[in-house]
Design a protein that fits this description.
Layout lengths: L3 E8 L5 E7 L2 E6 L9 E12 L1 E6 L19 H15 L3 H14 L2 E9 L7 H12 L5 E7 L10 H11 L3 E5 L8 H15 L3 E5 L3 H18 L5 E5 L8 H13 L3 E4 L10 H7 L3 E3 L16 H11 L5 H9 L3 H7 L14 E4 L4 H7 L3 E6 L2 E5 L2 E2 L2
Parallel strand pairs: 1-4, 5-6, 6-7, 7-8, 8-9, 9-10, 10-11, 11-12
Antiparallel strand pairs: 1-2, 2-3, 4-13, 13-14, 14-15, 15-16
Helix pairs in contact: 2-3, 4-5, 5-6, 6-7, 9-10
Length: 396
């Protein structure tokens, strides 16, 4: 693709037939019948549906076994079983976070994802090794793939001395966001854990994305403590709570009170919409003005055999988990892996409008709802103005 390109004969989700002019990696214009200037490269969209590049809001590129031989999962049922099993297996197998994160990132791009937030384990056994591998992947794809890295203490913050110093080093080395994990049930002291997390984030002027698996009243208590700190420290709009399973199980009155606080403090929620546990309701979040976006979590790793780098599939799973069947409701699920996810993560210049980064996906589908449920091969994927995939395969 040249520096100036015109994609013709495509349809937007609202049914409009348009052309898209791309220059310097940005959308220069979008509308019907754009002029064919001399020397401009023409891509015939052949009546395809035009979508913005997809956004993966929460995954773990460093953990994946994507493309490797099948991992036989015999891990125990507890969260700590999975944590300990993974640490042991990665050390024994020599799992290469650099090679594996690159393989999965390329698979995401092939399927239409152009922006991604990945959590990377920071561990007292591995140090910053996994981070270094993912930083190398980000550098390798820097011209086309917009990646945020979360420094994530998978074993908790307080239980393994030295973790806070490693997180400090990870943020200094290039991680964009500070992660955290279950301050009550993993760290055992939610006050101390949250105080240290917020102190680290403020020291580096970084946002926070916390895994909160804690159920019911325990999770609600931790969430309340977190919101207290957001308010006291002026970190409105800088915190994401991933999973937030407690919000799917609380009585409606208590849930709604927390949703109101989340909205007021502009704290976003991330859901993977798993079928096996209670999850925050998309409709309830929308009614209260809470931002809820989507992601896969782990993909084909020692935790789970499931997951896919296709964000249309994740949109479908979010829709199914929330009982969405109408075409307009399916569009809400797509927002969770596109515009809402971009806003929640802070990805700039996103969307299908002049001036936005030229991240585009073309699919053979009648409508957006059709694309979500059928998940056809991507006819064309454009990232930062460049064609990166054609007919379901990477071109670079």
């Amino acid at each position: 693709m040249t520096n100036t390109t015109l994609i013709t004969n495509v349809r937007t989700a609202d049914g409009a037939r348009v052309d898209v002019s791309i220059a310097g990696g940005r959308i220069a214009a979008i509308g019907p019948g754009l002029a064919r200037e001399p020397g401009v490269h023409i891509e015939d969209g052949a009546d395809a549906l035009l979508l913005p590049g997809f956004v993966e809001g929460h995954t773990h590129l460093d953990k994946t076994n994507w493309g490797l031989r099948w991992y036989r999962n015999e891990v125990g049922p507890k969260l700590t079983d999975r944590i300990e099993n993974e640490r042991r297996w990665r050390a024994q197998s020599g799992h290469d976070a650099g090679a594996q994160s690159l393989a999965l990132a390329r698979a995401f791009m092939e399927a239409g994802t152009t922006r991604l937030r990945t959590h990377v384990d920071i561990d007292t056994d591995a140090g910053l090794r996994h981070l270094e591998g993912v930083l190398a992947t980000r550098h390798a794809l820097r011209d086309v793939f917009d990646m945020q890295i979360v420094a994530f203490p998978q074993s908790g913050l307080l239980g393994r001395p030295g973790t806070d110093a490693l997180l400090d080093g990870a943020l200094a080395a290039g991680a964009d966001v500070l992660g955290a994990l279950d301050p009550a049930l993993i760290d055992g002291d939610p006050v101390a854990s949250l105080d240290l997390t917020f102190s680290l984030a403020q020291r580096h002027q970084k946002p926070i994305d916390i895994h909160l698996h804690e159920p019911g009243e325990v999770g609600a208590f931790t969430l309340g403590l977190l919101l207290d700190r957001v308010a006291a420290l002026g970190m409105q709009g800088q915190v994401v709570v991933s999973h937030a399973f407690c919000l799917g199980a609380l009585p409606e009155r208590e849930r709604d009170a927390l949703l109101a606080r989340l909205a007021d403090l502009r704290v976003a929620l991330l859901t993977t919409a798993p079928p096996s546990v209670a999850v925050p309701s998309l409709k309830a979040c929308l009614e209260h003005g809470v931002t809820l976006f989507g992601g896969n979590d782990g993909i084909r790793d020692t935790w789970t055999p499931y997951g896919s780098p296709d964000m249309l599939e994740r949109a479908m799973l979010i829709a199914m988990r929330n009982g969405l069947r109408r075409d307009d409701d399916l569009a809400l699920a797509f927002d969770c892996v596109s515009s809402v996810a971009a806003r929640a993560c802070g990805f700039e210049a996103y969307g299908l409008q002049a001036g936005a980064r030229a991240d585009l996906v073309l699919v053979d589908a009648d409508t957006l709802a059709h694309a979500i449920v059928a998940r056809p091969p991507r006819k064309l994927v454009v990232a930062n103005g460049r064609v990166v995939a054609r007919d379901g395969a990477l071109v670079q």
